[in-house]
Every structure is written in structure tokens, then in C-alpha cells.
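# step 3/5: fold
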Amino acid sequence: NEIETIGDLSGLDKLTSISVYNNKITDLNGLNGCAKLQTISAYDNNTLTGSLSLKNCPELTTLNVYITEVSDDTNTKDVVETTVKGKLDSIDVSGLKKLTNISAYNQALTSVNVKDCAALTGINLYGNQLTAIPVIEGCAKLTTITLNDNKITDIKNIATDMDSKKEGINTVVTSLNLSGNLIESLEGLKEATTLTTLNLAKNKITDISAIGALTTLKTLTLTDNAELASLKPISDNFATTSSLTLNIVGTKAAKDTEAIKEMQKKFSTMKITYTETTTEKK
């Protein structure tokens, strides 16, 4: 459709769902204050700009403002990287106690506030402009965080938000995707001890010491961290019965076949992929 404007709808006290996807809407703030609104489907409005606040929608459970991946390359049907991006730069849904899911990928987000969203289980924010992991304090049910292809350099705040020794802190995140960012240091990651799936591909990581504490990991992707040379933190700290699936293609560690063989002797159930076609498993 061709809808461009949504005015102030806060007076619609019986509105529970709105579907305005694939339009030309520039602003959704007219929905803020809809007291009964539960679902917003406003994806593929790549004209959305500026900030979006929905803090006054206490019944909101689902927010979809993503941009579908498409390519303007007519020579291929495969989408390598979307060429259509949104312009939305910030979202504030803090304090929404019933919000369970946010999908806002392929926008231009530099700020997302989800603090104290107690029912939130998943956030999908890949393909934005974020430089740090959003604060997840008070998100006690959050299990899945998808932040690949941003500009994240700093992950220190996860040490505060996922430290199980602190009362009220999130302790259930199991999946974290940070691939395609600008991360050099994993400082703080050692507190994320509930993780089972961690993707750190295509960053600038040279030291994985913090991963030595994440012994519950089942899948770890470290591909294309070109200067990463040592897997010693894994070898020294993981149980010999670990069933970790580890991918190190495109790293210096992948070229150290002797070290890989030694690891396979020690870890009989660990699987290591170190070339595009080779998986070592005892």
C-alpha cells in the first residue's frame, strides 16, 4: 500500500493489533499510548526514520519493524547482503512487562532500550549500526540475542547483565550471535556462563581467554578471526567429555594441525572444523 502517515491513535482504547507492513510510513510514534495494543506488524517500511518510543503501550507483546532482505542485483537470486535498509535509529520499549519479541533488523539503529522487559525472550537486531550490546538488565527470560552485522566493539556490559552472582540479573541467555562486528576484546564474556551457542565469526579477536569459562557451550563459531592463533583456553578448561562443535576456518589456529590433533586426542567427542571441507573428529 501507500500509507505514509499514522496520526495519534492513543484514543483507540480497544485497538489490540495493527498491521501496516509494506507501506511508506515514516513515523510510528502515533501508536504510543494505545493502552490495549498487543501486536505491531510494521515491517518493510524502509521509510521509517528517527526514534520510536512505545513505552506507553503496556500490553504490547510483539514488535516487528524489520526490513526483509532483498537485493537489487538482477543477476542473482541469492541475497549476499541486503541493499535495502531502513532509517530508524532508536527504539525505546523499556519497562514493557509483557513484550516477548522484537525484530528490528536491517534498520539504522544506534540505540535500543529494552531494560526491564521482564517477559522478553528474543531480540533480533542484526544489520544495524549498534556499537555495544543493548543493556538487558531486568530481562530475566531473554534467551536469544541476535546482533550480527552491526558495529559492536564493546561487550563489557554483558558482564554486569549476565553475572549469575548478582540478584535479579539475567541468567538464561543461551544463544548469542555477534558475528560480523568489530570486536577485539572478549572482556566480560566470561560471566555469560549459560551460553550454549556463541557466534563470534568475522571479528578481530586474537585472544579467547574469556571463553575458558563458558564450558557449557555446545556450538562455538570463530571463523574469519584471522589473527586468532591459540585454542589453549578451550583445551585447558573444557571437560574431556565436551561435545563442543567448534569452527575455526580462516584463523591462524586452523593452520596448526598438530595442535588440533592433540585436542582431538584429549576430547574424544569434540568436533573441530578447520578447513572449508574438513572436520576432525576422533
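# step 4/5: annotate
The helical segments are 157-161, 232-237, 257-266.
# step 5/5: archive (pending)
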